[in-house]
Amino acid sequence: MAIRTSRAIFGTAVAAFVAGGLLLGASGPAAAQERLDELREQGFVRIAIANEPPYTAVNPDGTVSGAGPELARAIFKKLGVEDVVASVSEYGAMIPGLQAGRFDVVTAGLFMKPERCRAVAYSEPDLCDAEAFAVQKGNPFGLRSYEDIAANPEVKIGAPGGGTEERLALEAGVPRDRVIVVPDGQSGIKMLQDGRIQVYSLPVLSINDLLAKANDPNLEIVAPVVGAPIYCAGAAFALGNEELRDAYDAVLAEMKESGEFAEIIEPYGFSAEAAKQVTREQLCAAN
Ligand code: 6CS
After folding, report:
1. 109 Cβ closer than 6 Å to some ligand 1 atom
2. Which region among 11-25, 189-203, 236-250 has the lowest average model confidence (pLDDT)?
3. Which member of 103, 129, 190, 247 has the lowest number of beta carbons within 10 Å of its beta carbon?
4. Does 185 sit in the ligand 1 pocket, CB within 6 Å?
């Protein structure tokens, strides 16, 4: 689903032209220039988002916000590309969509992990967060870790399809039939309220946002999830577009230095310092 922004309209034909041009473009530094010229000409860059505030959000008027898109919009504007046009995607479909040329970059808070680092060209880190659970008030099943969920056959966990929380639950030994794929945050909260799942897992800032909006005294957060890493995301470009990624990174580094990076992400609850203390190389290193 392509989301109209204030200034740009998604054009499939145009997108196909750009994608085609990308595949046939030059290599090396000329590639970044050629790609940027195409994007400048087009007037927008196509981003993938999940609509999971505060990482990414589609507003009632159809405009796009959230830390990821706001940061990308600022960086691409400095690169001469006026706006972003967003498509909402499930996390598990973002990398295939990038590889198929359906979007130019994923700016959804896609956490860096070695297997993903092999499949995309990540920018340097931008949005860092721990994992969390939304549970019934009083945490009746005493859930603090994904292992706790695995140990209790009465507990079903909801998580985004192809997302990190689904993977963490499966790796902790939760059987597939007790890991329920949930399409979006509102559905996750509803399923928890209806007792169809006993825990819903997303990053801390996302669960906090959902619980604040649900305003339900019968729900509470468990954070951080014991034993789960603190992750950092980055903007993800298709392999072969490392030069464009490098151009993006150069601006990101300047904005980290100037304080502009903090001004954009910290109002959403993210720590600029956390992202500045770690590198793509460290996060992508096979564990
Ligand atoms: O990168 C991921 O897989 C996770 N990132 C976010 C921002 N939310 C959930 C998702 O599983």
Report:
1. yes
2. 11-25
3. 190
4. no
> How many A from CA of 27 to the centre of ligand 1?
32
In the reported structure, the alpha carbon of residue 42 is separated from the centroid of ligand 1 by a whole-number distance in angstroms of 29
Q: pLDDT tens-digit profile of 71-127?
A: 999 999 999 999 999 999 999 999 999 999 999 999 999 999 999 999 999 999 999
Whether 228 is in a domain gets the answer no
Clarify whether residues 193 and 267 are in a common domain. no
- Ligand 1 centre and the CA of 233: distance in Å? 8
Q: What is the pLDDT of residues 27-48, one digit of tens each?
A: 666 777 888 999 999 999 999 9
Task: Based on the fold, state whether residues 166 and 266 are members of the same structural domain.
Answer: no
130 C-alpha vs ligand 1 centroid, how far in Å?
10
Kindly report the protein residue whose alpha carbon is nearest to atom 6 of ligand 1. 109
Does ligand 1 come within 6 angstroms of the Cβ of 202?
yes
Name the residue of 90, 98, 111, 210 to mutate for ligand 1: max ligand atoms within 8 A of Cβ: 111
Quick check: 219 and 211 in contact, CB under 8 A?
yes
**What's 76's domain CATH number?**
3.40.190.10
- Both 13 and 112 in one domain: the answer is yes
Q: What is the pLDDT of residues 187-225, one digit of tens each?
A: 999 999 999 999 999 999 999 999 999 999 999 999 999
